[in-house]
Design a protein that fits this description.
Blueprint: H1 3-26, H2 33-58, H3 62-98, H4 104-135, H5 138-162
Helix pairs in contact: 1-2, 1-3, 1-5, 3-4
């Protein structure tokens, strides 16, 4: 699977977040168990496909792979925490949007949390670069950060395009 196919799959997954937010915003019914199971299956598929695309695009030697994959797994776990924070911001906005005009205080709080999440994302990358530099040549560190950045840029774009502007 090449990077373009991975990005397409990630975009499909990213489109589900705003769909869940919109559903939450317009419906008072809780998500069904089958919805939760389907979302977990999709998340697992995206993780597996992302890992495969990273492997194919990184062109790691056996020695590099032995050092890289534990760092990758740790980074993905930490990134998952940031993604969860951003999901909570989106769901918080969906709830506020559903209620009508978003109060200034709520808009400020959501904006601050969104900015804090973005800061955490940058700090996470910064904290992992030295770890990656111990395991890989600089060009491969840069390549890996590029791959992650491209994937996250597409997700952010799709997410932003699906979220209505604050009233």
């Amino acid at each position: 699977m090449n990077l373009l196919k991975l990005i397409s799959l990630v975009v499909a997954a990213a489109l589900l977040v705003p769909a869940v937010a919109r559903t939450s915003a317009t419906s008072k019914a809780p998500a069904s168990d089958s919805d939760s199971i389907n979302m977990q299956i999709l998340r697992d598929k995206v993780k597996a496909d992302k890992r495969l695309a990273v492997a194919q695009n990184m062109e790691l030697t056996d020695s590099e792979a032995t050092s890289f994959w534990p760092i990758y797994d740790s980074y993905q776990a930490d990134l998952g925490k940031i993604n969860e924070r951003m999901k909570q911001v989106v769901l918080g906005y969906a709830a506020a949007y559903r209620a009508g005009a978003v109060p200034n205080e709520t808009a400020h709080k959501l904006l601050q949390e969104s900015l804090a999440t973005q800061d955490a994302d940058v700090q996470l990358v910064r904290s992992y670069v030295p770890k990656l530099e111990k395991a890989l040549p600089e060009c491969k560190v840069a390549r890996y950060i590029q791959i992650e950045t491209k994937i996250r840029a597409v997700i952010r774009y799709e997410l932003a395009s699906q979220i209505p502007l604050v009233d």
